[in-house]
Amino acid sequence: MAGFQPTGGRLATTNSLPRGNAAPKPRRTIVLVGLMGAGKTSVGRRLAKRLELPFVDADEEIVRTTGLNVPEIFERFGEQAFRDAERRAIARLLSEDTKVLATGGGAFLDAVTRQAIADRGLSVWLRAELDVLVERTIGRRHRPLLNTCDPRATLAALMAARYPVYALADLIVDTIDGPIEQTVERVEAALAAHFAGKEGNDEE
Ligand SMILES: Nc1ncnc2c1ncn2[C@@H]1O[C@H](COP(=O)(O)OP(=O)(O)O)[C@@H](O)[C@H]1O
Ligand SMILES: O=C(O)C1=C[C@@H](OP(=O)(O)O)[C@@H](O)[C@H](O)C1
Ligand SMILES: [Mg+2]
């Protein structure tokens, strides 16, 4: 029953507010999930501007609150400590105002986080092929899981393990080689189609 509001003289249920020709402004936090290099951070930042919503990157939030960067947390406290901080940060961010939230690539693998996202957000998997992910992550040192002797093989193994879980997201958007804006537009189109399908439906 949530979301009832009068529109044009009729009672309608909406989970979004109309914004001219752009994708409607969502009432739930849009949560970007997907592998490292999919573009969650860079697409999320631009998407938030387009939707006129605040943007938060979960990794940046963890860095801000701990005063340590991601490799430092992994090195000094281990991956599990990072995952615990990540779960707490995302739970808090979801309990606050509606926003665009870029998660780190491992966050959606956590069942508690997945449930919190299902309860309070709308998840969008930015799906990419291996070549694209390799291209976008090669030579960058800030992702501890990719600091291996064969980052391509590491990414391939992570794809095999994680893609079935990312596939549980509410929406899937393919991100291909090309300008970031193109992916942003694809996400906006997917959101618009999703909200259009929800029109007159009081599930949310
Ligand atoms: N079409 C695109 N979509 C997203 N990112 C792109 C695209 N093309 C190039 N990039 C680059 O790929 C990198 C993606 O990294 P990032 O946004 O940090 O991904 P993630 O947060 O998913 O790990 C950035 O350096 C970005 O500039
Ligand atoms: O996939 C992962 O497990 C990780 C992804 C990273 O974020 P991005 O996906 O934004 O690179 C960051 O959270 C950390 O290095 C672990
Ligand atoms: Mg990121």
UniProtKB/TrEMBL annotation:
It comes from the Bacteria. It is found in: Cytoplasm. Mg(2+) binds at T41. Pathway: Metabolic intermediate biosynthesis; chorismate biosynthesis; chorismate from D-erythrose 4-phosphate and phosphoenolpyruvate: step 5/7. It catalyses: shikimate + ATP = 3-phosphoshikimate + ADP + H(+). Keywords: Amino-acid biosynthesis, Aromatic amino acid biosynthesis, ATP-binding, Cytoplasm, Kinase, Magnesium, Metal-binding, Nucleotide-binding, Transferase. Binds 1 Mg(2+) ion per subunit. SUPFAM superfamilies: P-loop containing nucleoside triphosphate hydrolases. PROSITE patterns: SHIKIMATE_KINASE (PS01128). ATP binds at G37, A38, G39, K40, T41, S42, R143. Substrate binds at D59, R83, G105, R162. Residues 1-24 are annotated as: Disordered. Its cofactor is Mg(2+). InterPro entries: P-loop_NTPase (IPR027417), Shikimate/glucono_kinase (IPR031322), Shikimate_kinase/TSH1 (IPR000623), Shikimate_kinase_CS (IPR023000). GO terms for molecular function: ATP binding; magnesium ion binding; shikimate kinase activity. Catalyzes the specific phosphorylation of the 3-hydroxyl group of shikimic acid using ATP as a cosubstrate. This is Shikimate kinase. It comes from Defluviicoccus vanus. The gene is aroK.
